[in-house]
UniProtKB/TrEMBL annotation:
A single BP term in Gene Ontology: neuronal signal transduction
Compositionally biased tracts (Low complexity): 399-412
Keywords: Cell membrane, Cell projection, Glycoprotein, Leucine-rich repeat, Lipoprotein, Membrane, Receptor, Repeat, Signal
This protein's encoding gene: RTN4R
Name of the protein described by the UniProt record: Reticulon 4 receptor
Regions of compositional bias (Basic residues) in chain numbering: 413-427
Region (Disordered) residue spans: 313-333, 353-446
Organism: Capra hircus (Goat)
Biased composition (Gly residues): 434-446
Amino acid sequence: MKRASARGSQLLAWVLWLQAWRVAAPCPGACVCYSEPKVTTSCPQQGLQAVPADIPAASQRVFLHGNRIAYVPAAGFRACRNLTILWLHSNALAHIDAAAFSGLALLEQLDLSDNAQLRAVDPATFRGLGRLHTLHLDRCGLRELGPGLFRGLAALQYLYLQDNGLQALPDDAFSDLGNLTHLFLHGNRIPSVPERAFRGLHSLDRLLLHQNRVARVHPHAFRDLGRLMTLYLFANNLSALPAEALAPLRSLQYLRLNDNPWVCDCRARPLWAWLQQFRGSSSELPCSLPARLAGRDLKRLAAPDLEGCAVASRPAPPIWTGGPADEEPLGLPKCCQPDAMDKASVLEAGRPASAGNALKGRVPPGDIAPGNRSGPRHINDSPFGTLPGSAEPPLTAVQPESSQPPGSPTTGPRRRPGCSRKNRTRSQCRLGQAGSGGGGSGGVEGSGAPPGLACGLVPLALTLVLWTVLGRC
Ligand SMILES: *[C@@H]1O[C@H](CO)[C@@H](O)[C@H](O)[C@H]1NC(C)=O
Ligand SMILES: *[C@@H]1O[C@H](CO)[C@@H](O)[C@H](O)[C@H]1NC(C)=O
Ligand SMILES: *[C@@H]1O[C@H](CO)[C@@H](O)[C@H](O)[C@H]1NC(C)=O
Ligand SMILES: *[C@@H]1O[C@H](CO)[C@@H](O)[C@H](O)[C@H]1NC(C)=O
Ligand SMILES: *[C@@H]1O[C@H](CO)[C@@H](O)[C@H](O)[C@H]1NC(C)=O
C-alpha cells in the first residue's frame, strides 16, 4: 500500500510539474509573461545582451527596454505576427538589421529611443509597417534620415526625432505621412528648412523645431501645414523669417520664435505685419540688430522703427551670408526703401554710437541689454512664451530719434546716409549694396566691389561732391 501511495504522489508531482512547464516554458528566462489585458512578454532591465530567441509567438506586446541589447537581427520577431507594441528603448543598439521588423504588419508602436550608439538606420527598416502609429527615434545619435526611411507609413501619427544629430531635412522625407499629427525635431543641428521638407504633412498639428541651427526657412516650406496649431522655432539662428512662409498656417495658435538673432530693419516688415494680424499666441521676438533696438520685441515695435538696413550696425557677426553659393537666399526681402517723407531717422548717420546709448536707459529692467542676447530666455520659457514684458514702455513713447546707426543706408537714391559726408569710409558706402543685395553681407570689408559700383545709386551730384571730398566714394 505504502508503495502504491508513494507511486501516486510521484505521479501527481510529475503531472503538476508537467502542467507548470506547459505554462512557464514559453516565457524566456528573464521575462514575465501574461495574457491579460494583452498577451505580453515583459523583460525590462534584465541585463539582456540579445533579443531572447524564444519570445512566445502569441505576444502582442514585447517590452525589452533598459537592457544592453546591441543588435536586432533580421526577423528577430518574425514569429510574433500579432505584435502591436515593441519597446526597445534605452538599450545599446548599434545596429538594426534592415529586416528586423519585417512581417510585423500589425505593429502600432515601436520605441527605439535612447540608443545613442545607433547613429544610422537602414532606409528599409520600417517597410511594411502600415499600421504603425508611433515611432520613437529620439536620442539615437542619428545624423541623417536616409532616403525613403518613412516611406509607406501612412498610419503614422507620432514621430519623435528630437535630440539627435540631424544635419539636414531631406526633401519629401515625410511626404507619405498624411496622418502624422506630431513631428518632433528639436535638439538637432538642422541649419535650414528647405522648400520640400514638410511636403504632404496635411494632418500635422505640432511641429517642434526649436534648439536647432535654423537660419533660413523657405517661403514655401510650410505650404501643406494648414492644420498646424503649434510651431516652435525658438533658440535657432533666424535673423529673418519670410512672412510668406507663415501665411499658409491657417490653424496656427501657438508660435514661439524667441531666442533668435532677429534683425529688426526694413526686411522684417512683412513678418512684423503678419504678427500684427496673428490672432494666436506668440512669444516675444527680441531684436538683435540694430543696436538701438536690441532687446526690444519686434512685435511691439512701430512701423517707423523698421527702416533701413541694420547689416553693419554691429561689426560682427554677419546676419546673412546667404549660405553656400548654390543655395538661394530663402525669402529675405531686399532692403527696402523707407516710407516717403520719413523723419530724419534714416538719414542722420552722424551719431550712431550715441544712438544705442541714448536708448539704453529705455530697455526695461530684466530685459537684455543691447548687444547681449543670451539674456532673458527665462522670460519666454512658459509653455508658449507669451508673457508680455509688462515693464516695457509703450512703443509710442520711444521716439525713433535721429539715430540710425552707421551703415543703415537704403534711403533710396536721394538720401543715402551710408554715403553721406559724415560717414565716408569705403565700407560704409558698400553697406547699402550688401544689404540691398539680400545676401553676402558678411564680407563688408572684404567685398571686392569697386567703390563706384557700390555707390551706383547715389545721385550723380552727391557722388561728385563725395568724390571731390574723398577722392573715392
Ligand atoms: C493572432 O491573433 C489571432 C486572433 O486573436 C489568433 O487567432 C492567432 O492565433 C494569433 N496568432 C498567433 C501567432 O498567436
Ligand atoms: C488616417 O486617418 C484617417 C482619419 O483618422 C483614417 O480614416 C485612415 O484610416 C488613416 N490612414 C491610415 C493609413 O491609417
Ligand atoms: C548662424 O547663421 C549665420 C549665417 O546666417 C552663420 O554664419 C552662423 O555660423 C550660424 N551659426 C550657427 C551656430 O549655426
Ligand atoms: C549677458 O546676459 C547674461 C545673462 O543676463 C549675463 O550673465 C552676461 O554676463 C551678459 N553678458 C554681457 C556681455 O553683458
Ligand atoms: C561715422 O561718423 C561718425 C561721426 O562722423 C563717427 O563717429 C563714426 O565712427 C563713423 N562711422 C564709421 C564706421 O566710420
